[in-house]
User: Fold these one by one.
Assistant:
Number 1:
Amino acid sequence: MDYHWWNRLGMGVEIDLTREQFGPEEIVTEGVVILRPPEMVRLREEYELLRDRVLEKLSRALSS
């Protein structure tokens, strides 16, 4: 067993930017929601960069 992480936004919208890395023979099951604690600092800069990029793409898509 291995782990795969992706983002679940409000209203149940899921954004998985790396799902295509799995081949057709691999099974990615339903996820378990794990809330990130506010004091978590590991990889914070990377998460914030990803968040900003996702929000920018969503904003552009919604305004089109």
Number 2:
Amino acid sequence: MRLSFLSILSLLLLVVQPALAREKSSDAGDISARAVIREMNLARQNPALYATFVQELRGRMAGNVLVLPGHTRIRTKEGTPALDEAIQFLRTAQPQAPLTLSSGMCRAAADHCADQAAGGFGHEGRDRSHAGDRIARYGTFTGGWGENISYGKSTARDVVLALIIDDGLPARKHRKNIFNPYFNFAGAAFGRHAKFGTVCSMDFAGGYAERGQSTDETLVARNF
């Protein structure tokens, strides 16, 4: 499958209806909200280790084409310089506290995924909502919010690696969201997408108080 790296990386949102998490063993290949947040936390808490994952990817470059661990082939804009820059960032980054998975924010992410299932693209919902509006449906946020959307990825690690590299986006805004020290809560969802095959949505907030549900309820998108 060959996709534009910019279109795959530039946004991170999910497309499925949420469902209560089923306890299961998980790894970098797990396709769930829990797995995506676990991967982001691995990068936040041990950036030097995550640098080795990007270094491994560098060996997968063939010209400007990168083959991710999930076998997605991506034609990059920047080629190896984007990977080298990500490796340098990760080797020097200070570890950050882990993100807390929020069930309300997972619901918000799943709302946007469902909204985009037919082929939508971007951060704005069909009702003109943005991520701040959506996460406010299920709780109260403080300290600001952010959103990443990824299309066409088959594993949680593919999602997070692509966003950290952030090829073709010099500001590296997706990477900044992942490593933002002021973000403490996150939600995510995965689902099918009519154009790109899959979509993964992640929302972030500095603080978040759930509304109308237990704070220890863990919600993830339905696996498929």
Number 3:
Amino acid sequence: MSLWSNLHKREKLVVSWGGAFLLVLLGYTLLVAPLSSDLVQMEAAVASKKAEFAWMQDAAIKAKQLTALRSTKSTVSPLKVIDQAARKYGIDSSLKRVDPGETGQIKVWFENLVFVDFMRFLRGIGGGRGLVVTNLSVERLDAPGIVNARATFKAEAK
């Protein structure tokens, strides 16, 4: 303490103010700056999480609507679906044989069929009508674009 008592009044005042300033600066550097940086990062994370939550809520609503739509579909016989689709795509005249097989599978034979029409038929069958192709065999004929085809369909699991 002899060093403090040897200082003049003005020097004591300058050292006191300098020490107080140093304490404030040290407190800000060690406490306030890191906390404010963390706060900015957390606010950004909260904004991101809110956007993600809003998207999830919207997706949940759409999923419920799709589930409700799927469950309200009328249960039409797969044979009728195939027949209607063949008529719709103009390939019913090429439809030679339909064989309801075991385990819910339906085997269908087409002869002298335009390949592009057959592809449209397959796309239409799969488009929400509840049938999937499990086996497909296409045989090219001599005429361009004309094929014989065999397809096996199965009802989609709900």
Number 4:
Amino acid sequence: MKTTDAADAAWMKAALALARRGLGQVWPNPAVGCVLVRGGQLVGRGWTQKGGRPHAETEALWRAGDAARGATAYVTLEPCSHHGKTPPCADALVAAGIARVVVACRDPDERVNGRGIARLQAANIPVSEGVCAAEAEELNEGFIHRVRRGIPLVTLKTAATADGRIATASGQSQWITGDAARADVHRLRAEYDAVLVGSATVVADDPLLTCRLPGLEGRSPIRIVLDAQLRTPLTSKLVQTARDVPVWLFTAKPADEPAAHALRAAGIEVHTVELDREGFGVNFRQSFAVLAERGITRVLVEAGGLLAGSLLVDGLVDRLELYRAPSLLGGDAQPMTGTLKITDLAQVRRLDRIALRTLGPDVVESFRIRP
């Protein structure tokens, strides 16, 4: 049953706001929010906790206690119906005496996908579906990608001048954007499971790739390096901090290479994958499939132009976060993407702008990339 009741939508938006707190922290699980309402009053709330458990419904029921009986539960994703590391949330809602459940969207996981709703209905609990469905699907697009496509959601982040340049001809790029924009990138990292760069960026910039905003230092994502030839220096910041914040490296070199042994000894998780079809870099799709198998749902790519262009050519980028500075570097500077192999305007990559914000002197534009 579907509903368009305004009160239902308002409570579901509150649940969605709670769900956002889990982004970047709950993989391999989805980020879910739940609010319990009785007599028009909030009696309990919860969101998926770090590592994916407890689930949102369990948290909300625990906070509500006896007040949950007779309440309406607003859940951003269909309650689970299978036994995993925690019992089914659908059963918990039934046991707590919930009178009605409002679900934003179904869980595409084949272990759930309608079974959670069916379990609630079998207990004579009315279920309304589709409230704020688009917002809920957007929030958990990474989880949905992983389930349906076997790869994570991939977002390309780049900082460029007004003429689309990311560095001078000699490679200088620090700093194109201002303090507010750079701080926002740290916030963005905190919402992703992993942040990914190529070995060229590691060699040229020696990035740390952590979240260093006050209060969010513990939300740094897994750091991923695509390094076909094992060029990552043992002296780099990523290697030196690998035991503090995990680093996973993908290479085309054999696992028994001395350089691979040295990286593993430093605390880095090394994965050997195939070369790409041109024989230069790692196979992107295979690398992303491994990430999905490990539970990663959302990847933020902070790459140079060559890697960015290659990912776009392979059709692996879903979103673009473009931080644009009011400055010019000219045609001899490095572009934000390498070649996209476009020979005719009919092949142009189309973007849909979904957000536009001002950060000090800079502008950040959020785009969805059309298939």
